[in-house]
Specification:
This protein has about 50 residues and is mainly α. Helices cover about 80% and strands about 0% of the residues. The protein starts with a helix and ends with a helix. This is Spo0E like sporulation regulatory protein.
């Protein structure tokens, strides 16, 4: 899958938002869900050429 430059910028911004949410979150289950989203987004970013 080819990711455009614009999509990469969106993904990186979303990663920043998720990381901040993860740091602020105090609820364990929600924190785990956010972490899974961070992992998934990280995999997408890492797979980009």
């Amino acid at each position: 899958m080819m990711i455009s430059h614009e999509e990469m910028i969106i993904f990186l911004k979303e990663m920043y938002v998720l990381m901040n949410e993860y740091k602020r979150c105090e609820e364990t289950q929600t924190k785990e869900l956010i972490y899974k989203d961070i992992q998934l987004l990280g995999e997408i970013i890492a797979s980009a050429p």
